[in-house]
From TrEMBL:
Listed GO MF terms: L-fucose isomerase activity
The entry's keywords: Carbohydrate metabolism, Isomerase
Single Gene Ontology BP annotation: fucose metabolic process
Pfam families: Fucose_iso_C
SUPFAM superfamilies recorded: FucI/AraA N-terminal and middle domains (SSF53743)
Name of the featured protein: Fucose isomerase
GO cellular component, as recorded: cytoplasm
Start and end residues of each L-fucose isomerase C-terminal domain: 342-467
Organism: Niabella soli DSM 19437
Isomerase in keyword set: yes
Amino acid sequence: MADTPVSTLGVIIGNRDFFPDKLVAEARTELIGLFKQLNIRGIFLADADTKLGGVETFADAQKCAALFRQHRETIEGVLVVLPNFGDEKGVAETLKLAGLDVPVLVQAYPDDLNKLDVVNRRDAWCGKISVCNNLYQYGIKYTLTSKHVIRLNDPVFQKDLLDFTSVCKVVGGLKKVRIGAVGARPTAFNTVRYSEKILQRNGISVTTVDLSEILGNANKLTANDQVVKDKLEQIHAYTSVGKTPSEKLVQIAKLDVVLRAFMQENALDCTAIQCWTSLQQNYGCNVCTSMSMMSENMLPSACEVDVTGTLSMYALQLASGAPSALVDWNNNYADDESKCVLFHCGNWAKSFLPDISISTAPILGTSVGTENTYGALDGRTPAMPLTYGRISTDDCKGVIRAYVGEGALTDDELKTFGNRAVAQINNLQGLMHYICRNGFEHHVVMNASKTAGILKEAMENYLGWDTHVHE
């Protein structure tokens, strides 16, 4: 088990005076054991702080809220546990006073049919409705468990809890993400236009830099600089270089050094880079290898200055804990209406490319010369799970919107170049109609996970973005 917890959650254990107090103590003991098992850090009231560590009165709420405020910087979400009916005002007041503005998961215990007497009954089925009613009145957003009432040791609840920690990471990450836009949007790519102002209103900051500044700094470096030598070692350790000339590898390394410095100086979480066609014409190589290495190291990077594309990559990465890749919805797959080809010149994270190798970009090479496109990666993605999604700014309506869904990547035959994959998606034709009808981009993000539900809950419930789940 890793030393670093997968998440840090504040915990409110609800109580109500005319229900058995022992249920609170039992729930607290169970929860401590569960958090240890799942490597979750819990911020609890001590059992001496209030009656058995539960929250019932306004004074209890004040104590719990003060504890949460002490840990404001680390608490990612709050778990409400109802071992009995609970005091709905106590729960709501705690969250109001704490002012954390993080996701909230509400759990309630089921009753046993043979324990509905006065000394054993819980009535948490009813209590959960009352708690949620109060949270709704207070304007506090919350998440529900799969079953209305469920025990902590139920595997379904444990999945709910782990999914909730992922929801917390998506919400917390997207509220403060910092994106680097490197260069100008290629003029032929109106599809990747976006509203920087709408993103900023949602806490998403974009830092821009002219491509000439990046290329100018790269040209100041030489093959003898230690940072360039170190980067070349990293590239060789990352991928086969194929037939790439040594001087091109040096160019790729110099560009990577400068891009990483730009990210560090501006504390950026992800980047969107101009790659078509100024980079090839003015510098003489592709940036795909660097983008792949960044994405593999959980610093997503998208081509064609697709800022909301890299935002989508970051969101899917937060939901799954695994790298994402920006792809084109590119081709039909013969006559199979449930399959299509996903493609890009070659910047996907290594996780998607077991046969990864540095190559060239033949399509781009027809206009800029193939010798100027070294750095594009070649590789085929094998069968794996698939979550796909796209976040976009609807500038006409002044909102952020998204779609997500799940499918599978397959091992179906595919004879072509670049980074490529075959996707199988139920009702794919309906999905394409939705994308076209609603003006979404030709770029989509893929992730080797099943996290559409997590993304829907995070983006729609907590962030307020209209999110379509393709069924």
